[in-house]
Amino acid sequence: MQLGLVGLGKMGFNMRERIRRAGHEVVGYDRNPEVSDADSLADMVGKLAAPRLVWVMVPAGDITRQTIADLGDLLEPGDLVIDGGNSRFTDDEVNAKALADKGIGYMDAGVSGGVWGLENGYGLMVGGDAEHVERAMPIFDALRPEGPREEGFAHAGRIGAGHFAKMVHNGIEYGLMQAYAEGFELLEASKLVENVPATIKAWQRGTVVRSWLLDLLVRALESDPELDDLRGHVEDSGEGRWTVEEAIKHAVPAPVISAALFARFASRQEDSPAMRAVAALRNQFGGHAVQTAGPTSGSGSTQS
To answer: How far apart (Å, rounded) are the C-alpha atoms in residues 197 and 224?
Structure first.
């Protein structure tokens, strides 16, 4: 099967290789000429035989929207576009309608696997018409992990369902990572536990908290046992925020995912205005000691 792949970054580059290993032809386009198989988006489309299948794997937002709009001007009726980036699910209906007006099909695909997907395969969650899913199945089968299809691939529902499922997946990921991180910090703070990396490594087999994320934490600790080489500054891709917004919209309690998202916000503050306010209030009502921005500390404390 032939595929056009737009975006050959950290994931797209490895996806191209995995699909090729499965025996398919991939014509990749990237703005970086060192990795691109085509000189332009138009050149990539020109190298594909109709009806074409094009997978978009570029950063979510304006870049994805513009790329899909450009493809709408280049492709022909009967062609099919898959957005495999981390787009917000609300973009999918808009993209699908714009392409449908030109006779071009559209699907959204949530893709999980990161930089390890080349060897391990990618978990796939797809939204779109059943006929489009069936048409692209050889590519999905090439990308997903080995084993039963249903353990690495899901036709989640109609347009938007794939990205919605991936959004929730990433929200869960936020919570899992935060739990491991808090456990690591508590072990580090204890005077009883003398070998934190060994303790966490012992959780990898037989325990109820074993997971691939735990394996990755063990890997990180092997190279930096106290993680001193890193700053505790954590960005978010947007999907955690979207998950919390949807939880609010549907009145679904999501305290763990919400707390994990807010913890990321806190990680970016060198000095928290909110916690300064808490310190000021404790000083006002109870005379509790505060640390000032200058060389001296605040007044003594009384109990309340």
So the answer is: 9
Mean residue pLDDT of the chain comes to: 92
Contact in structure between 56 and 85 (CB atoms under 8 Å): yes
Q: Is 227 helix (H, G, I), strand (E, B) or coil?
A: coil
For the cut 50, the answer to whether the pLDDT of residue 300 exceeds it is no
Length of the chain: 304
Give ∠ CA 272-278-283 in degrees, rounded to 5.
125
* Distance, CA of 243 to CA of 262 (rounded, Å): 13
How many CA atoms does the CB half-sphere of 98 hold within 13 Å? 16
166: exposed, middle or buried (C-beta count within 10 Å: 0-12, 13-18, 19+)? buried
The reported pLDDT for the residue numbered 6 is 98
Q: For the chain, percent helix, then strand, then coil, each to nearest 5? A: 50, 10, 40
Best CA proximity match to 68, nearest among 100, 33, 36, 39 = 100
Give Dmax (Cα) for the chain.
79
Q: Catalytic annotation on 47?
A: no
3-state secondary structure of 242: helix
The answer to whether 173 is a known catalytic residue is: yes
**Amino acid type, 154:** A
Q: How far apart, in Å, are the Cα atoms of 98 and each of 94, 162, 174, 182, 281? A: 6, 19, 33, 45, 54
User: Which one of the listed residues 17, 25, 93, 173 is annotated catalytic?
Assistant: 173
Q: Which residues pair with 4 in a beta bridge?
A: 27, 54
Reduce the DSSP state of residue 27 to 3 states and report it: strand
Q: Residue 152: which of 133, 170, 125 has the closest Cα?
A: 125
Q: 92: which 2 tokens?
A: 């999918």
Spatial distance between the Cα atoms of 23 and 26, rounded to a whole number of angstroms: 10
Question: Which DSSP helix (H) or strand (E) runs through 110?
Answer: strand 105-112
Could you tell me the pTM of the whole model?
Answer: 0.88
